[in-house]
Design a protein that fits this description.
Strand content of chain A: 15-25%
Strand order of the largest sheet of chain A: 2-1-3-4-5
Strand order of the largest sheet of chain B: 2-4-5-7-6
CATH class of chain A: Alpha Beta
Radius of gyration of chain B: 43 Å
Number of strands of chain A: 5
Structural class of chain A: alpha/beta
Strand content of chain B: under 5%
Distance between the termini of chain A: 11 Å
Number of helices of chain A: 5
Largest sheet of chain A: 5 strands, parallel
Number of domains of chain B: 5
Oligomer: heterotrimer
CATH topology of chain A: Rossmann fold
Helix content of chain A: 40-55%
CATH architecture of chain A: 3-Layer(aba) Sandwich
Shape of chain A: globular
Shape of chain B: elongated
Helix content of chain B: 55-70%
Chains: A alpha/beta (122), B mainly alpha (897), C mainly alpha (99)
Order of helices and strands of chain A: EHEHEHEHEH
Number of domains of chain A: 1
Number of helices of chain B: 36
CATH superfamily of chain A: Response regulator
Chain lengths: 122, 897, 99
């Protein structure tokens, strides 16, 4: 049974692409497409790793990450943040919020795969 | 019933009638009716208070003694009225624009709102007017006596002092009743003026009637009358030139300076235009008044027993010739002359006394703060009433003390010389900016002293007030100081002598002191305003606000003007300043306006003093001084420049702060914008990269999957292109680099085109159009307009969430704007977002069906370039946008070609 | 002040308004002259009270009549053109255009 990835991302095409790449590598991919209720999704799905977009409708990725880190059981849950805003301060904010990895869009498929594999040793 | 009782009854009925007229006129004015109350004829008639009992009875006596000399008393005012363009016009304008309440107020206002000057003028006016009031009381008394003399039923002496007392009390009641109803002297006394106008008609009719009776009834026609004049003692034309010219000048000067004349001419003036009518109507009035004087005098001298008082010919001629009715009319004429003069003089003097003497003293005694204690309004009214009583009592007292003898007869001209002392300060103040307070005070003091010494005191008779020795040998035995032959000018008529010396010395001192002394800023400001009143009639006071508490001002104003008026004024100013409530900012404009309003109630000097107390001493602003800077001293300019410099620095600092804030704001906006652009560009690029890598890496994949990924790449590439196009478009529009391609077009056709381009023609949405209203000619950039229409239509298609989507397009024209409304039947845009939908990258819905959120921003920019706009219309059936643009002008197309 | 173009009527009107103001200023001077004149007459058979009376009342009436005419002339809507320098400048413009 493969490990579970929770992809929180609102752009349909990106969901499809990332799901395809990770599934092909043997990951079980679960998705959530908006900022609201993201925390519930994390609790319900209990993923091994979370891929979190920064610009989400309803709630920003940074806020979601803070909520995740606020709960003891997810304190060490690996989180990979994706951002399309490419600004230096975003990286800072991601680090402060407790992201394990931060990647700027567009990324190569291999990069995502490597990052996820690095975050969750199999 | 005897003649005396008849006359008492008639006067009582007459007075009751005057009461009714005054009361009715006051009521009509209060209700805003009765425009006839404000007619130029009423104004002209009110000026006739110049003709007092002294002229009504006295002119005939004057003529009987000195022939045509009496005419000078009327010729002077005639010349002044005919020459109204020179002086009176300016006096009235200044009086109105500065809300002047009396001649003392005018002079004090002109010379820096100086209270000392006001007090001085007031005292002088009271001294000069009191004997004159006594003269009126005397004339009524002796006319009563004349009736008593021919009354067989009446035995014994009539009590002259008793009559005078009752007349004085009656006048006091009348004056208080109609003269102190309104506190603000500028809320004119309509009832009083009306009563005076009526009295003017009565006295003119009476004198004309007596004249006609004398010429045609007694003398037997014009020729016989002329023959009698030729045979009389006054047949020869032998008036001394000095008296003829001197008295004409004197009466002209007095006409302008008499407090009561100032009251009716300036204070009670309703409209400057009335002066124009009065300029010829008043000379007509006085000409008619003087027309029959010489015939009456000549016939009276002929028919009356030797030693009869010629002053009473007007009364005794009808009486002795059995014309009792005419005699009663004549009595009423004299009675009218006396009462109207006393009433107006009392009002004028009481205004001066209460504003310049009582109020300042009261203010001083109450600690100088109008805010803390007492009701100023009540105090001012009480002060005015008390002043009226005191003035009338003084007149009565003077009558009693002087004994009412022949000494009074000369008092008319003596009074004239007294008030003529105001003339240099008055005219100098109106025409010469160099005139100043010290000069006016010094000139007035010298003129007043010379008048007292050379005319007023000697008039009581030798040894009465002035020792015989002084009169004959001069003060300290110096011959050149003889009161009636100053500087050796012996052999002159005493009145002309005193007039000449007092006025010349007054003028010389006034001019000299003005030349050598330096005026205060307020004086210079007022000087400029008075002299150049026609250049800038908008009066300015020159207050600098700042620390003033509007509330304190409000409290004070309520006490003086009354709560309602004060609230109305404050509320109005507050509204003008764009504020709600009743407390405006204490701007200089507001303060000077308030000061003028208060000045109407308590006089300029007091109003100024009261506001200074609250404002805290600041009096004249730099701007005001700069306004008269053409003769402002260098030091003033220097200090004001310094002040301006600091002001400029403060302004620069303020501007810098503003710019800084703006830059920060722009920087924040720019960051947000860059983030947005980055996001919008990177998102499609992410998909493209990811799917192209998937395709490149190959692997087992069904062909439909490959096709699907390829089409995603294709769509995202298009999305990127469109985004870049939009950004470029917006950037061009925002920088106004766009070149509009203006051309003729038809709105209907343009909408058709847009419908097709927006994909509405596939019946996915019902489009409601009004084919008739569509046919509007356009002259605009049709491609750009179509772009806007397409955007709005495709928005409707994308976001309208109704089951049976429908878009109504309505066209209308309003105020030169063509309105095109796009209204769908969906749920519309939530109220909270309506304000931001035209901002860049703002999206309403969460699905990404649309573009980057630049569409409406571009629409807004385009419409702004086309001279119109686009806005959201709330409260429609669904989402609704209104596009508006200027209607194509008829000539626009031709002009462009 | 810019005079309205092409309106001779207005120019004439303004012109006469100016003259009416001049007349209004001169009128009291004229009156003073008239009223002082009898002083030059010799008393005796040359100047009797009746004669002077007739003279003065006639002149008085004439003066009032003139005052009436002037005041009517000044009653136009723009009678309040008070600034003399501006007024004169205005007038010169009119004159030069008329000439």
């Amino acid at each position: 049974m493969g490990k579970t990835v929770l992809l929180i991302e609102d752009e349909q095409n990106i969901i499809e692409a990332v799901s395809f790449i990770l599934s092909r590598d043997g990951w079980e991919v679960k998705t959530h497409a908006n900022g609201q209720n993201a925390m519930e999704a994390v609790r319900a799905r209990e993923p091994d790793v979370v891929i979190l977009d920064v610009m989400l409708p309803g709630k920003s990725g940074f806020d979601i990450l803070s909520e995740i880190r606020a709960e003891a059981q997810f304190a060490s849950l690996p989180v990979l943040m994706l951002s399309a805003r490419g600004q230096a301060k975003d990286l800072e904010m991601a680090e402060r919020a407790g992201a394990n990895r931060y990647m700027t869009k567009p990324f190569s498929n291999a990069e995502v795969l490597d990052a996820v594999r690095a975050l969750v040793p199999t | 019933m005897g003649a005396l009782n008849v006359i008492v009854l008639v006067s009582l009925v007459y007075v009751a009638m005057l009461f009714c007229v005054a009361f009715a006129a006051d009521r009509a004015a209060a209700r805003g009716r009765g425009t006839w109350l404000r007619s130029p004829i009423v104004y002209t008639l009110s000026l006739s208070i110049y003709c007092t009992a002294w002229t009504f009875y006295g002119a005939v006596g004057f003529a009987a003694r000195s022939g045509l000399e009496y005419l000078t008393i009327y010729l002077g005012p005639t010349l002044v009225m005919v020459g109204w363009w020179w002086t009176l016009r300016k006096m009235v304008r200044v009086g109105r624009s500065q809300r002047i309440t009396s001649i003392a107020d005018l002079i004090s206002s002109r010379f820096g709102k100086s209270n000392a000057l006001a007090v001085f003028v007031t005292v002088l006016a009271v001294i000069a007017s009191t004997p004159y009031i006594a003269l009126q009381l005397q004339s009524v008394t002796i006319s009563f006596a004349a009736f008593a003399a021919v009354d067989p039923t009446h035995t014994g002496e009539i009590s002259e002092t008793g009559v005078a007392l009752w007349v004085a009390i009656g006048l006091m009641v009348f004056t208080i009743l109609f003269g102190t109803r309104n506190l603000d002297a500028n809320e004119r006394h309509h009832g009083l003026v009306m009563a005076i106008a009526l009295e003017a008609v009565v006295k003119l009719c009476a004198l004309l009637a007596v004249g006609i009776f004398v010429v045609w009834g007694l003398a037997g026609g014009v020729e016989q009358t002329l023959a009698r004049i030729d045979q009389s003692a006054i047949a020869r034309w032998e008036v001394p030139g000095s008296r003829w010219v001197g008295l004409t000048l004197l009466s002209a000067a007095a006409f302008m300076c008499l407090p009561r004349m100032f009251q009716v001419m300036v204070v009670e003036n309703e409209e400057e235009g009335h002066l124009r009518t009065a300029s010829w109507a008043f000379p007509t009035y006085v000409m008619l008044m003087s027309l029959f004087v010489v015939p009456i005098a000549a016939v009276g001298l002929d028919l009356s027993p030797a030693g009869a008082n010629p002053d009473l010919f007007v009364l005794t001629l009808p009486l002795e010739n059995g014309q009792e009715g005419l005699a009663v009319l004549s009595f009423l004429g004299g009675f009218s002359s006396a009462t109207s003069m006393v009433i107006v003089a009392a009002i004028a003097l009481s205004t001066m006394v209460s504003n310049h003497v009582v109020m300042p003293v009261w203010l001083h005694m109450t600690g100088g703060s109008a805010v803390v204690s007492g009701d100023v309004r009540a105090v001012a009214i009480r002060a005015r009433r008390l002043s009226i009583m005191v003035i009338l009592f003084l007149g009565y007292l003077y009558f009693r003390v002087s004994g009412g003898g022949a000494a009074l007869a000369a008092i008319g001209l003596i009074s004239f010389v007294g008030v003529a002392q105001f003339l240099p300060a008055l005219l100098g103040g109106l025409f010469w900016r160099g005139a100043n307070r010290r000069g006016a005070l010094a000139g007035l003091a010298v003129g007043f002293a010379v008048w007292m010494y050379s005319l007023f005191l000697p008039s009581f008779g030798a040894s009465a007030v002035m020792p015989q020795g002084v009169l004959e040998n001069g003060l300290l035995g110096l011959a050149w100081l003889r009161p009636q032959a100053l500087f050796g000018a012996a052999g002159m008529d005493p009145v002309v002598h005193a007039f000449m010396w007092s006025l010349s010395l007054n003028i010389v001192v006034f001019v000299f002191v003005s030349l050598i002394s330096f005026p205060q800023p307020v004086e210079r400001l007022q000087g400029a305003q008075f002299v150049n009143v026609f250049d800038h009639s908008a009066p300015s006071g020159g207050w600098t606000g700042g620390l003033v508490q509007s509330e304190d001002l409000m409290i004070m104003a309520q006490r003086i003007m009354g709560a309602q008026e004060a609230q109305a004024l404050f509320g109005e100013v507050a509204r003008e300043q764009g504020m709600s409530g009743y407390l405006p900012e204490p701007t200089p404009d507001f303060l000077s306006r308030l000061e003028r309003s208060l000045a109407g109630s308590v006089g300029a000097a007091t109003a100024h003093a009261m506001i200074s107390q609250i404002v805290g001493g600041a009096s004249v602003s730099v701007q005001d001084l700069m306004a008269v800077a053409d003769e402002t001293a260098q030091i003033m300019e220097y200090s004001s420049q310094l002040e301006m410099k600091t002001e400029e620095q403060a302004r620069t600092a303020r501007q810098l702060r503003q710019v800084n804030e703006k830059l920060t704001q722009i920087s924040v906006q720019k960051d947000a914008f860059l983030s947005q652009i980055s996001h919008e560009l990177r998102t499609p690029m992410t998909s493209i990269r990811a799917f192209s890598e998937i395709l490149r890496d190959g692997g087992e994949m069904p062909p439909e999957g490959q096709r699907r990924y390829a089409s995603i790449i294709h769509d995202e590439a298009i999305r990127l292109t469109r985004l870049l196009d939009d950004l470029l478009d917006l950037s061009v529009l925002e920088n106004a680099q766009i070149v509009l391609n203006l051309e003729e077009g038809n709105l209907g056709a343009l909408l058709d085109r847009a419908e097709t381009a927006a994909g509405l023609s596939d019946n996915s949405m019902t489009v409601g159009r009004d084919a008739g209203a569509d046919q509007v000619r356009l002259y605009t950039d049709t491609n750009r307009l179509a772009q806007v229409f397409i955007n709005l239509m495709s928005n409707a298609r994308k976001y309208c969430d109704a089951d049976a989507p429908r878009l109504d397009i309505r066209v209308a024209e309003r105020d030169g704007m063509l309105l095109v409304d796009f209204i769908d039947n969906g749920s519309g845009i939530p109220a909270g977002q309506q304000g931001t939908i035209f901002e860049k990258f703002s999206r309403v819905s969460e699905n990404k069906a649309g573009g980057a959120g630049l569409g409406l921003a571009i629409c807004r920019e385009i419409m702004a370039r086309l001279g119109g706009g686009v806005e959201y219309l709330p409260g429609q059936t669904g989402g609704a946008f209104r596009v508006y643009l200027p209607v194509a002008e008829a000539g626009a197309a031709e002009a462009a070609q | 002040m810019s005079p309205k173009r092409g309106s001779v009527f207005l120019a004439r009107r303004a012109y006469f308004q100016r003259r009416a103001m001049d007349a209004a200023r001169l009128l009291p001077v004229l009156g003073a002259g008239i009223f002082v004149l009898p002083l030059l007459w010799k008393s005796g058979d040359g100047a009797r009270t009746v004669m002077v009376m007739f003279y003065i009342f006639l002149c008085w009436t004439a003066l009032i009549g003139l005052g009436w005419i002037v005041s009517r002339r000044l009653s136009g809507p723009d009678a309040d053109v008070n600034r003399d320098p501006a007024g004169d400048a205005n007038e010169q413009v009119h004159v030069s255009r008329e000439g």
